[in-house]
Specification:
Pfam families: Homeodomain, TRAM_LAG1_CLN8. One of its GO terms (biological process) is ceramide biosynthetic process. It is found in: Endoplasmic reticulum membrane; Nucleus. 28% of the residues are buried. The protein has 392 residues and is mainly alpha-helical. The longest helix has 33 residues. It folds into two domains: 251 residues, no CATH class; 44 residues, Homeodomain-like (Arc Repressor Mutant, subunit A, Orthogonal Bundle), CATH 1.10.10. The chain has 14 helices and no strands.
Length: 392
C-alpha cells in the first residue's frame, strides 16, 4: 500500500501541467472531442510490442530477402575454423585483453605448454571468431536500408501537403490544441518501435566501434520522440524524423555495395550520403528545425519547462551530428587521398578491425617466411630469392 501511494504521488508530480504544457493550458484541453483525437501518453505502450513485431519481420526479411540478395551479389557465407578449447587462454581473452602483449604471450605459452607462435595464432583465431561475416553485415544493412527507404517515402507522402512543412509558423498555430492525424500516429509509432528494435538487437548485431554513440543516439531519439509526443510537439517531431531518415538510406546502400565488393559504387553512394548528411544535419537541422523549435515560440510563448527540455534534447542530437561528421570527414579523406572505401563511421568490423585482420595475416605470413629463410641460412639475402620461392 505504501509503495502504491508513493507511485501515485510520483505520477501526480511527474504529470504536472506546468512541466508539460504552456501556462494556462490544462490536460483537459487535450481531451478528445467532436471527433478530434489528441495524443495520449498511453499510446506509447504500443511501441514495445510493435518493436518485437519488427524484430520478427526483420528475421524473415534477412533470411528470405536479404540473404538471397547477398548471394546474388556474390557474398558467400563464411565458415570460420573453430579454435582449440583452452581454458587458460579463454579466461585471459575474456577477462584481460583480446590483444595480449609479447610478455603476456610468453607467460601464457609457459603456462599452457605451447609455443609463443601457437598462442599468437590462438588469439588471432579467437578474435576472428567474434568478427561478424560479410553476409551478416549485408543482411543488417539491407534491413536498415529497406526500413529507412519505406519510412522516407511514407514521410514524404504524409507531409507533402501539410502547411507547416512550407511555413514554420504553422508548426505552432493553435499549439498545443492540435489534433492528432492518423498518418502522424503511425509515422511516430513506427519510428519509435524501430529504434526500440535496434536497442533490443544490440546484443546480436555486428559490433560497432561507435557503439556507445549509437546507444546514446537511439535512447536520445526515443526520449525525444516520447517527450514530444506527450507534450504534443508532433508537427516539429515529424520534421525532425524526415530530416534524419533521408540521409541514412544512402549510407546503408553504400555499406551493402561495400560488402559486395562494388567499391566504385560504394564510393559514389558514400559521397551522395555525405552531401545529404551535411545539408540535412548541419544546415537544415540547426537552421530550420532548431530555429523553428527555439526561436519562433518566443514570439508568442513564455519559455516553459517542456520548451527548454525539448530544445536541450535537440542540441544533444546536434552534438551527435557533429561527432559523426568528424568520422565522415575522415572517411572522405581516405576515399579521396587513399582510395580506401571502408566506412569509419560504421561497424567495428568495417573500419580498423578489418585493417587489423589483414595486417595480422600479412605479419604472420612475413614472420613465417622469415623463419623459413633463417632456417635455410638465407638471412639478410632472402630478398634475392624470386617471389614465391621463400621457404622452398
Amino acid at each position: 500500500f505504501h509503495l502504491s501511494r508513493m507511485f501515485q504521488t510520483f505520477k501526480e508530480w511527474f504529470w504536472k501541467e506546468r512541466f508539460w504544457l504552456p501556462p494556462t493550458i490544462k490536460w483537459s484541453d487535450l481531451e478528445d472531442h467532436d471527433g478530434l483525437v489528441f495524443v495520449k501518453p498511453s499510446h506509447l505502450y504500443m511501441t514495445i510490442p510493435y518493436a518485437f513485431g519488427l524484430l520478427i519481420i526483420r528475421h524473415f526479411f534477412e533470411k528470405f530477402i536479404a540473404m538471397p540478395l547477398a548471394k546474388a551479389f556474390g557474398i558467400k557465407e563464411e565458415v570460420r575454423k573453430k579454435v582449440t578449447p583452452n581454458t587458460v587462454l579463454e579466461n585471459f581473452f575474456k577477462c584481460s585483453t583480446r590483444q595480449p602483449s609479447q610478455a603476456d604471450i610468453y607467460g601464457l605459452a609457459k603456462k599452457c605448454n605451447l609455443t609463443e607462435r601457437q598462442v599468437e595464432r590462438w588469439f588471432r583465431s579467437r578474435r576472428n571468431q567474434e568478427r561478424p561475416c560479410k553476409m551478416k553485415k549485408f543482411q543488417e544493412a539491407c534491413w536498415r536500408f529497406t526500413y529507412y527507404l519505406i519510412m522516407t517515402v511514407a514521410g514524404i507522402i504524409f507531409l507533402y501537403d501539410k502547411p507547416w512543412v512550407y511555413d514554420l509558423w504553422e508548426v505552432w498555430n493553435g499549439y498545443p490544441r492540435q489534433p492528432l492525424l492518423p498518418s502522424q500516429y503511425w509515422y511516430y509509432i513506427l519510428e519509435m518501435s524501430f529504434y526500440w528494435s535496434l536497442i533490443f538487437s544490440f546484443g546480436s548485431d555486428a559490433k560497432r566501434k561507435d557503439f556507445l554513440a549509437h546507444v546514446i543516439h537511439h535512447l536520445a531519439a526515443i526520449s525525444l520522440m516520447s517527450f514530444s509526443w506527450c507534450a504534443n510537439y508532433i508537427r516539429s517531431g515529424t520534421l525532425v524524423m524526415i530530416v534524419h531518415d533521408v540521409a541514412d538510406i544512402w549510407l546503408e546502400s553504400a555499406k551493402m555495395f561495400s560488402y559486395a565488393g562494388w567499391k566504385q559504387t560504394c564510393n559514389i553512394l558514400f559521397f551522395i550520403f555525405s552531401a545529404i548528411f551535411f545539408i540535412s544535419r548541419l544546415i537544415v537541422f540547426p537552421f530550420w528545425i532548431l530555429y523553428c523549435t527555439l526561436i519562433i515560440p518566443l514570439h508568442f510563448l513564455e519559455p516553459f519547462f517542456s520548451y527548454i527540455f525539448l530544445n536541450l534534447q535537440l542540441m544533444v542530437l546536434q552534438a551527435l551530428h557533429l561527432y559523426w561528421c568528424y568520422y565522415i570527414l575522415k572517411m572522405l579523406k581516405r576515399c579521396i587521398f587513399m582510395k580506401d572505401s571502408k566506412d569509419v563511421r560504421s561497424d567495428n568490423e568495417d573500419g580498423y578491425e578489418e585493417d587489423e585482420e589483414e595486417e595480422e595475416e600479412e605479419e604472420e605470413a612475413t614472420k613465417d617466411k622469415e623463419r623459413d629463410c633463417l632456417k635455410n641460412g638465407l638471412g639478410a639475402n632472402r630478398h634475392l630469392i624470386p617471389n614465391g620461392q621463400h621457404g622452398r
